[in-house]
Amino acid sequence: MIAIEKVRELAIAPLGTNRPAFVISASGLVRIEHRVLIVADDEFHLAEFDLRNNQPGSWIRLLPGSLASDYRERKKQKPDLETVTRIRPDQFATFGSLLVVPSMSRPNRITGALIKLKNDLTISDSPVPIDFSHIRKKLAQSIDGLNVEGIAIQEAVTKLFHRGSKSKGKSVVAELDTRTFLHALHDTHKPLSSCILELREYDLGDIEGIGLSFTDAVPMPDGRVVFLATAEATDDEYRDGANLGSSLGIMKVNGDIERIIRISGREKFEGICADYLTTKATSSDRAAHSMEVLLVSDTDNEHLPSNLYRCSVNLN
């Protein structure tokens, strides 16, 4: 069992009239030095927080548009941005970039965003919309109730993590060719289905009889992937249900599951970032013996804020 510590509530200035002064549906996060950037599935923005203090965060717009204030109407309209990942510096972005990926669970949930980082690792002022419609169309032919919740961009392969459900099947990892995928992000801003290599189903076990399903993932420097999975009593990708708890898992380089560890409590964790606490963690020298992990929860409640947590995971 992994013990967790609450860091803070995600208090933030409201974006408009009748909007709460906190993040409701946190669904992914990335850490850049002392800052955490959190994507919420019911916003067109990223939320930025400074880990050095407990001051309210600030919003950074990703996509144009506006959403209804009413919670139910907002759910119908939302872009469903589910995960954010950091892309290392390359020929397209000298200082690296961030990629925000939508769930692709509905035809109106196909637009993500690509944001280049500046030399001081702050975010550029011009996020680029990314059209995932081709990827969605192809994946939806094989995956019933498609619901992408995580991404892990690795040197050769990029993994998209589909969250399975009780009535529509197991969780799935879709593998994409990284070189082709990254080129399309920066060139046409519309990755094609031709970059999809293969699909692999996963049985992640259960909590009290409710199956665990992927909710986020983060690539590690040794080629492994750390992922989150939660046990939510719901039959599909749209309706929320009672949450029985969450677990943290480690995926080997070859895609096999190395271990899955229960996280204490019954929080629905939907976002993760992780760092090894030792630096010599490569495919040939796995000196890392623990991880420092940050998590964000999704309360599925318009009256309750999402929260940021921390924990340490022993790898021995």
Q: Tell me the major beta sheet.
A: 4 strands, antiparallel
- Contiguous uncertain segments of 5+ residues: none
CATH architecture designation? 6 Propeller
- Please tell me the total number of domains: 1
CATH class: Mainly Beta
Tally of individual helices: 3
Helix-strand category:
mainly beta
CATH topology: Neuraminidase
Q: Distance N terminus to C terminus? A: 14 Å
Secondary-structure element pattern, one letter each? EEEEEHEEEEHEEEHEEEEEEEEEE
Number of strands: 22
Q: What oligomeric state do these chains adopt?
A: single chain
Strand order of the largest sheet: 1-22-21-20
Helicity range: under 10%
Describe it:
This protein is mainly beta and 316 residues long. It has one domain: Neuraminidase, CATH 2.120.10. 8% of the residues lie in helices and 43% in strands. A 4-stranded antiparallel beta sheet has the order 1-22-21-20, with no helix packed on it. A 4-stranded antiparallel beta sheet has the order 2-3-4-5, with no helix packed on it. It is globular and about 45 Å long. The model has no long low-confidence stretch (mean pLDDT 90).
